[in-house]
């Protein structure tokens, strides 16, 4: 017997959430552990519920899907988050993936595609529905991937001379999480050294206390 995949649904439209729950509960190998209405509730309950997969809407009250995705992955790095939304704008899709989502589904997909996406991300794959794939334009040569707000905050801390341990203590996250963010920042900016990060921060006004300008 295959293991049951624990799924959390986060969507502020009750009819949508209940419809998805009804679909997923028809599969023997899926269990819906919670249906929540915003990102804050997901953050508050995820560590107790320990879902394997989160189906996450983007625009929600209190804490939206992108911020919730980033915070959840800091706390539960093995969690798979699939965005389920009406937005097919390429910027939304790219931003979701840069925040750590491993799947992107539009709400008009056939119901069996939600199950297909869950199976794919549980197998370690990234899943984009057909509509989302068609919305992503090929990356422009030399185009720089944008830093998330959390990465910008960590870049500011690192550029001011703090060690990974000090940043972890300041932001109340693990050293491992800081190291992961640091690697992602270097990858996105095409910078290989700490000195390079500091130089980038100085050149882009990070150390002036006005935030990161990318």
Brief description of this entry?
This protein has about 210 residues and is of the alpha/beta class.
Largest sheet: 6 strands, parallel
Q: Tally the helices.
A: 10
Helix content: 40-55%
Radius of gyration: 18 Å
Order of helices and strands: EHEHEHEHEHEHHHHH
Total number of beta strands: 6
- Fraction in beta strands: 5-15%
Which whole number gives the mean pLDDT?
83
The general outline is elongated
Structural class by SSE content: alpha/beta
pLDDT < 50 runs, ≥5 residues = 137-142, 209-214
Oligomer: single chain
Widest β-sheet, arrangement of strands? 2-1-3-4-5-6
How is this structure best described in words?
The structure is a single chain. By secondary structure, the chain is of the alpha/beta class. Helices cover 49% and strands 14% of the residues. The chain has helices at residues 14-24, 39-49, 65-75, 90-98, 111-122, 130-135, 149-159, 164-171, 175-189, 194-203; strands spanning 5-10, 30-36, 53-56, 80-85, 103-106, 127-128. A six-stranded parallel beta sheet has the order 2-1-3-4-5-6, sandwiched between helices. Strand 3, helix 3 and strand 4 form a beta-alpha-beta unit. The N and C termini lie far apart (50 Å).
How would you describe this structure in keywords?
about 210 residues, alpha/beta, six-stranded parallel beta sheet, 10 helices, elongated, disordered C terminus
Topology:
Elements: E1 5-10, H1 14-24, E2 30-36, H2 39-49, E3 53-56, H3 65-75, E4 80-85, H4 90-98, E5 103-106, H5 111-122, E6 127-128, H6 130-135, H7 149-159, H8 164-171, H9 175-189, H10 194-203
Parallel strand pairs: 1-2, 1-3, 3-4, 4-5, 5-6
Helix pairs in contact: 2-3, 7-9, 7-10, 8-9
């Amino acid at each position: 017997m295959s293991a049951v995949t624990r799924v959390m649904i986060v969507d502020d439209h009750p009819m949508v959430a209940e419809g998805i729950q009804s679909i997923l509960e028809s599969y023997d190998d899926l269990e819906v552990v919670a249906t929540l209405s915003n990102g804050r509730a997901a953050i508050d309950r995820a560590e107790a519920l320990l879902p394997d997969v989160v189906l996450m809407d983007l625009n929600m009250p209190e804490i939206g899907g992108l911020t919730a995705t980033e915070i959840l992955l800091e706390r539960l790095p093995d969690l798979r988050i699939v965005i389920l939304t009406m937005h097919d704008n390429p910027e939304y899709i790219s931003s979701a993936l840069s925040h750590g989502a491993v799947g992107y589904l539009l709400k008009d997909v056939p119901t069996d595609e939600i199950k297909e996406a869950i199976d794919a991300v549980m197998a370690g794959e990234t899943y984009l529905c057909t509509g989302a794939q068609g919305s992503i334009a090929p990356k422009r040569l030399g185009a720089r991937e944008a830093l998330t707000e959390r990465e910008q905050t960590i870049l500011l801390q690192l550029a001011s001379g703090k060690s990974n341990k000090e940043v972890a203590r300041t932001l109340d996250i693990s050293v491992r999480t800081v190291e992961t963010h640091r690697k992602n920042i270097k990858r996105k900016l095409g910078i290989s050294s700490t000195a390079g990060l500091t130089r980038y921060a100085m050149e882009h006004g990070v150390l002036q206390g006005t935030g990161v300008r990318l």
